[in-house]
Write a structure and sequence with these properties.
Blueprint: E1 12-15, E2 28-29, E3 32-33, H1 39-49, E4 53-58, E5 71-79, E6 82-91, H2 98-120, H3 130-147, E7 152-158, H4 161-168, H5 170-187, E8 193-198, E9 201-206, H6 210-226, E10 239-245, H7 253-269, E11 275-276
Parallel strand pairs: 10-11
Antiparallel strand pairs: 1-5, 2-3, 4-6, 5-6, 7-9, 7-10, 8-9
Helix pairs in contact: 1-2, 4-5, 5-6
Length: about 290
């Protein structure tokens, strides 16, 4: 069934409320740092409507200020009659024909977002696929090198996960992965990225410094320890986590992931169910 049947678009044009407002591109958009998912669609919108800037602002995204002297054309992004965001276009002025054009493009943006999600999400855990996640990590590292933006990477591995599969079966292992995915995503902020790197190993990309990432890592560790898989509530599980930050030492994707991975294994060596980061930070609650 086409998504077009479920999308209703409305438009409105508003003048910039603050003549002194300054336009800035988002540091981290919905699909990751410097999101490029909608690049082709946005080019078409600019060409057909005369817009100078176009943004897909999904629920939870910070709204972009309207540039001084510009009008803002908006079309809500609706899926199954539920508003999931807003398509916004800025220009000095718009012709009347721009309104219905943006309405139509809003439907295409939702279609594209849904297809992208299906292609780039791990069906079991709900996390991003390894390729999609590492693409975001690559963009974050590049942005950090270019303008000093702060990004950190958390990598974690489920402790003794093979024993869960061996003792309870792969169905139980899958249930644990679903529970872990739900527990982790409940702890993350809208701008954070969560990916499955393979098997029982995951990554979280944090748009923040190492100290904030360590705090989030500890929340994730606690959430995983407390999580329950409804299909097998008797199965317990924990995770070991390593944290690294984009800096002079970690200025490539390979270096950042290698350092986070090294600290992950340091956490396992320290007794599992703990966090290892850029400072003497560790909590070992019990040894499995």
């Amino acid at each position: 069934m086409s998504f077009h049947r479920h999308i209703i678009a409305e438009t409105k044009i508003s003048d910039a409320a603050d003549a002194g407002s300054v336009f800035q591109a988002p540091a981290m958009a919905v699909g990751g740092p410097s999101d490029t998912r909608f690049e082709t669609l946005f080019t078409l919108i600019r060409q057909t409507t005369g817009a100078t800037h176009v943004f897909a602002q999904f629920n939870g995204d910070a709204p972009q200020p309207v540039p001084a002297g510009h009008a803002c054309l908006e079309a809500p992004l609706l899926q199954n009659a539920q508003r999931i965001g807003t398509l916004r276009a800025f220009a000095a002025s718009f012709a009347p024909t721009a309104q219905p054009l943006l309405d139509s493009f809003a439907a295409l943006v939702v279609d594209h977002a849904m297809l992208w999600t299906q292609a780039h999400r791990d069906a079991l855990s709900g996390a991003m696929t390894r390729r999609a996640f590492t693409d975001d990590v690559s963009r974050a590292v590049s942005e950090s090198r270019r303008n000093g933006a702060q990004y950190s990477l958390i990598m974690f591995d489920l402790d003794n996960f093979k024993a869960v599969n061996d003792r309870y079966g792969h169905a139980a292992g899958d249930a644990v992965l679903r529970a872990v995915g739900a527990a982790v995503q409940a702890e993350l902020r809208h701008e954070d990225r969560f990916g499955r790197l393979g098997g029982e190993e995951f990554g979280v990309l944090i748009a923040a410094d190492a100290d904030t990432a360590l705090e989030i890592a500890e929340r994730v560790r606690t959430a995983i320890e407390k999580a329950v898989a409804p299909e097998c509530p008797h199965v317990t599980f924990t995770a070991s986590l390593g944290v690294a930050a984009c800096d002079m030492e970690c200025d490539t994707v390979e270096a950042l992931m290698a350092q986070a991975d090294s600290r992950l294994y340091a956490a396992k060596a320290a007794g599992r169910n703990t966090v290892r980061g850029t400072k003497a930070f560790s909590r070992v609650l019990h040894i499995n």
